[in-house]
Design brief:
Blueprint (H helix, E strand, L loop, with lengths): L2 H24 L12 E6 L7 H12 L5 E5 L10 E2 L6 H4 L1 H9 L4 E4 L3 H8 L5 E5 L11 E7 L27 E5 L7 H11 L6 E9 L2 E3 L4 E3 L8 E5 L5 H10 L3 E5 L8 H8 L4 E3 L1 H7 L8 E3 L2 E5 L4 H17 L1
Parallel strand pairs: 1-5, 1-6, 2-4, 2-5, 6-7, 7-8, 11-12, 11-13, 13-14
Antiparallel strand pairs: 3-4, 8-15, 9-10
């Protein structure tokens, strides 16, 4: 029997529990906190791999010239507790990999980690103009000014199932809470008609906006103290190390480039053991993701350790429309 069918009863139970929780928030039995500072939540219905981190970075780049931006993250995988404001002296055990990546990329931006997002926002209010909430779509104790939902072209939420038979954290009906839905990680060769059909299938309301994005990989590999051209990989065998939810797009990109590599694949937010670090250190040339670089850089002493940056790219020249919508929603929130 199909494994999904075997797990379906458990999914129905899980869906029922999450549905009751959402109903409690909808009816006001559980309180969603509103804040004077505009809050932009970026999240998904599924478990990881939709491109939240590049989207947070895109928003920082979009807003940082006009607003003091702060980021709040749970700090997944850290070995500390409570509220911490991230500095570049922290490591991933202190604050997690993604918050450290944000801080290293945007040193002037306040980055805080805390499981209690309400408490984190209260600690930051008055010291910033806009707060970005990383992976907080299900954290309904916060009522964001803008709720951005990401779902991928390969596995859109309307074709998925609730855990454990699928990857959804809650029913696909939860998408109704989104102000903006982004179909992420689109294949740039996909026809507009196919993407339009996907948009139709998602059955968004008239109040919801839809955008299509793809992943843009950098043209340079970035190391501790130097960068090298991506083309260097064409004629050089290397080892790819990934500890992310879905490494398939990166593998496909490097394969299409003509790269010859061994792939060491680990789970998302993987805490590398000493033995694994020793093995990675013995490889001649190591390429990894920016997130994994945060974990490995302090434990691998080899010089030939590089990451390939990735960024969000809006398709069909819709980046200006997205920017206008974000700034308009921020302005509206501040006036009301």
């Amino acid at each position: 029997m199909n494994l999904k069918l075997l797990l379906l009863p458990f999914s129905l139970v899980y869906q029922g529990v999450t549905g009751l929780r959402n109903l409690a928030f909808d009816k006001g039995l559980l309180k969603s906190h509103k804040f004077q500072t505009p809050i932009i939540s970026v999240g998904n219905l599924s478990v990881g791999g939709t491109g939240k981190t590049p989207m947070i970075e895109y928003l920082v780049s979009l807003l940082q010239d006009d607003y003091q931006v702060a980021i709040v993250s749970r700090g997944y995988g850290r070995k500390t507790r409570g509220y911490i404001e991230v500095t570049q002296d922290h490591n991933t055990n202190d604050v997690g990999d993604e918050p450290l990546q944000y801080k290293n990329k945007f040193p002037h931006v306040r980055v805080a980690v805390c499981a209690d997002r309400v408490a984190a926002i209260q600690a930051l209010e008055g010291r910033c103009d806009v707060i970005l909430l990383d992976d907080a779509y299900q954290h309904r104790y916060v009522a964001p000014a803008i709720n951005i939902l990401l779902t991928t072209q390969v596995n859109p939420y309307h074709q998925d199932y609730v855990l454990p038979s699928g990857w959804l954290r809650e029913s696909a009906s939860g998408a109704r809470r989104a102000d903006i839905v982004i179909l992420s990680k689109c294949n740039k060769s996909t026809s507009y008609a196919v993407l339009q059909q996907l948009q139709f299938d998602l059955k968004l309301s008239q109040a919801q906006s839809m955008y299509f994005t793809a992943m843009d990989y950098g043209k340079q590999l970035i190391g501790r103290s130097e960068t090298i051209s991506l083309d260097y990989l064409i004629d050089t065998r290397f080892t790819l190390v990934t500890g992310i939810a879905h490494s398939e797009p990166l593998v496909a990109f490097l394969t299409a480039l003509g790269g010859r590599f061994d792939h060491l694949k680990f789970p998302d937010h993987h805490d590398f053991t000493n033995a694994e670090c020793h093995h990675i250190n013995s490889c001649d040339l190591v390429v990894t993701t920016e997130k994994d670089f945060q974990r490995l850089a302090g434990r691998i002493d080899k010089k030939a350790l590089y990451y390939l940056p990735v960024a969000t790219a809006f398709l069909y020249d819709r980046q200006a429309a997205f920017a206008e919508e974000i700034t308009n929603r921020i302005t509206y929130h501040r006036k009301h």
